[in-house]
Amino acid sequence: MKINALLGLFAMLALSATAAEKDDVAAAVKKLADQSYSWKTTVTVPEGRGFRMGPTEGKIAKDGTLHVVTSFGENKFQTAIKGGKAAMTNRDGEWQSAAELESAEGPGRWMAANARNFKAPAAQATEILGYVKDLKKDGDAYTAALSEEGVKALLTMRRAGAEPRPVTNPSGSAKFWLKDGQLSKYEIHVKGTTKNQNGDDMEIDRTTTVEIKDVGNTTVELPQEAQKKLG
Question: Is 52 domain-assigned?
């Protein structure tokens, strides 16, 4: 009986510690969300496997105005969001509103939905926190495994209204770094097998790292053409 009682006590203490550490990270994320900041996102995949995209650099103002530049090889695409409206550049570098893209042929609808649903780091970190389990402090970082549901959500991208693609063998982890009680960096690693557009198996092994800087000192100046499309 005493052994069972001790085991129960240890389990309760472990749960309490996990909850406290999750609260620490959640508070650090909230502190970031209340300020302006800049960030850089890098995505890495094993050599020879999967699509390799360049870095994404973004800025967000305290009022939510956002400007993002994403690199795909030698091409760069920009996204601007303000007051609930979104606009982005096409392959020719011309700005189009999300409303214009939604009525266009080809990938325009997907691009528009992607822009409208874009999550800045503070919002994405909040989503990731909802998927972590057994969060533990490890040196200067907090680490945790991701739930199966979380890996599936973070692993795949789909067109608005489309059925999610099935994922098998999902696994993943998350890591958060704090500085002065504020989120300064986070990383997610997700793995699994899903289907490509042809219905063939496709293995995904992706690590996404987000580094945050210039907190409270970032200003966002949207290009004039983007402002016109945003009204």
Answer: yes
The pLDDT tens digits of the residues spanning 71-115 come to 877 788 899 999 889 999 988 889 999 888 877 666 666 777 777
DSSP code for 27: H
| b/e sequence 107-132, b meaning 16+ C-beta within 10 Å | ebbbbbbbbeebebbbebbbebbebb
What are the pLDDT digits (tens) for 209-226?
999 999 999 999 999 999
Distance CA(144)–CA(137), nearest Å, equals 9
CATH number, domain containing residue 186: 2.50.20.20
Alpha-carbon distance 51 to 173, whole Å? 21
Helical (H) or strand (E) element with 11: helix 2-33
Residue 138, SS3 per DSSP: strand
pTM score, whole prediction: 0.84
**Which domain does 46 fall in, by range?**
19-230
AA identity, residue 182:
Q
